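Q: Hi! First time doing this. I have a protein sequence and I read that you can turn it into a structure. Is that right? Here it is:
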Amino acid sequence: SVPACCSARYSLALLAFFGFFLLYALRVNLSVALVDMVEPNTSLAKNTTSNVCPEHSSTINVPRNTTGEKYSWDADTQGWILGSFFYGYIITQIPGGYLASKIGGKLLLGFGVLGTSVFTLLTPLAANLGVGYLIAVRALEGLGEGVTFPAMHSMWSSWAPPLERSKLLSISYAGAQLGTVVSLPLSGLICYYMNWAYVFYIFGTLGVLWFFFWMWLVSDTPETHRSISRAEREYILSSLKDQLSTQKSVPWRPILESLPLWAIVVAHFSYNWTFYTLLTLLPTYMKEILRFDAQENGFLSALPYFGCWLCIILSGQIADYLREKQNLSTVCVRKSFTLIGMIGPAVFLVAAGFIGCNYALAVAFVTISTTLGGFCTSGYSINHLDIAPSYAGILLGITNSFATIPGMVGPVIAKNLTHNNTVGEWQTVFYIAASINLFGAIFFALFASGEVQDWAVSGYHLHRN
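A: Yes, that's right. Below is the predicted 3D structure, encoded as structure tokens:
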């Protein structure tokens, strides 16, 4: 094989890593900034903090910057502002996958990030104009971000040699987790020392910068790459020669009738339920039940995602080692990694609801739960490329459409279940997430496949007719 160091495929993985880093930073920064954008008395009716656990944060009052505008939005309005992103995001999933197969992933991913960054730069202006404008801008950001994952999957279908798939994809998608890790505490610090508008200006500017590097350094296929070595080009093309389909039309019907695809859909949906519920509500849980203050909160909320990031990188290496050196079948690796990555989190989430006020354990359990979830990246998450490399972008568009629904529904249901912020209510939230996870894991283990499907290979139409 061709050495990994300085190779074109690993440079692509690295640039993609930074791209997804920024995309997630742009996605979660609002949930931190929102706390500062709202007048303190309107956010929650007072007395909702539960008194089960004693206060225990040594709050040191640093003079904080209060120059940012304040708006009087109630809790429902805030819910809409946070949810609006997903309404744009879900619309462009399948079109994103389809477009990527037509115009190539490079332009699509590039302009997706550029669009998201530009709308992020406009966020403070939109907030000033009124809440409707802000919701619209967030939905437009979602539109831009919706194409990015399908575009990336579609690029990897012509760049990633089958036995390096888990490594390359886990590197590029791990950026998303690290983006969450860095931007949660960083947004908190920026709000604290500058003012909330800068959260949007700083991340937005970085996104625009990244766009120029991406357009300059990346190409859609190994054939069109400017500086790739001949050996590497040959290596990638020969490894993929039996895997890709040359026909231009998309076999929609066999795709939608494919059971292995629905196995991915179910797994993706249930994994995201837990992921999004935690992503949006972890700060609330830590503040209302565990009584951490906001400063600690930023760092502690980020800890689980740091664990997840480490786990994604490591599990990608392990998965390909098992497939290449230990000769384990692809389907065996995908299924076992998905089982670990979904049953593990379910167990620790339920446990987190039962340990009362033991803060250290609560944080540890939530962290272990999210960390184990990282195994899924080398499980169901890459399975699209195993069953249909040529249509990977479209398949990801389909599964991600379903998997975005929990982002819209999960937090709303959780908010409705936790009106009084009692430990019992939060246990219910954790129970629901855990049982959905269990179901997804079992369904995937029963019906997933690791082989390229018949309908995804060139000769398929000839055989049928």
